[in-house]
Amino acid sequence: MEVWRAIRERRSVRSFRPERISLDTLLRLVEEAAVWAPSGGNAQTWRFVIIDDPILLRKVRMISPGLLGEPAAVIVCCQDMKEATRRGAELGETLALLDTGMAAQNIMLAAHELGLGTCAVASFHHTGLQALLGLPDGVEPHLLVTVGVPDSLPSPPNRRLDICGINHG
Ligand SMILES: Cc1cc2nc3c(=O)[nH]c(=O)nc-3n(C[C@H](O)[C@H](O)[C@H](O)COP(=O)(O)O)c2cc1C
């Protein structure tokens, strides 16, 4: 799929069909999309958790008010914050957050190309999820990306086009 088209067509999907997604596909989204995002200082302190176990998914949904619908899987985008602050000093935390966003967008665009729907979810109980997943000390979940076969696609919300300035030479 053409990149411009993927950028334009991707929507946040919050209604999914009850179809599973192969582990190969989910791994591909991480190994061939997420980790190919740019990373500040090439630190690559991101860590990913793939969840497609229905029982665990139900528990994740219970502590994630922003997670709507019943996706087949959730990719938890985490950062090793100990490593991020060690490598990036005072910039480490900011770089880690930015890296997470870029990796998540890669996942969402690649999933769209595969005909899958996704939604970024920041509204979840961070320490609850950390405990539920038994994440190592210092590894923090930053953003969930739900993945599933879309049931319906929302219409695109309007976009603001307020370019703050053009300094064209
Ligand atoms: C950092 C971030 C956090 C988000 N958190 C949530 C969330 O908790 N729940 C949700 O339903 N959507 C969430 N979204 C999706 C936005 O609501 C969505 O991207 C926005 O409404 C624009 O719609 P579109 O993605 O279809 O273009 C989040 C998006 C981003 C980038």
Description:
By secondary structure, this protein is an alpha+beta fold. It has a single domain, classed as NADH Oxidase. 37% of the residues lie in helices and 20% in strands. It has helices at 3-9, 23-31, 54-62, 81-88, 92-113, 126-133, and strands at 16-17, 46-51, 73-80, 117-121, 139-150. The structure holds flavin mononucleotide (FMN). Flavin mononucleotide binds at residues 11-12, 14, 66, 68, 119-123, 154, 156-157. Flavin mononucleotide is lined by residues 11-12, 14, 66, 68, 119-123, 154, 156-157.
SSE order: HEHEHEHHEHE
Give me the number of helical elements. Answer: 6
Sheet with most strands: 5 strands, antiparallel
CATH C-level category: Alpha Beta
Low-confidence stretches: none
Report the count of strand segments.
Answer: 5
Instruction: Assess the beta-strand content as a share of residues.
Output: 15-25%
Helix coverage percent of residues?
Answer: 25-40%
Which small molecules are bound? flavin mononucleotide
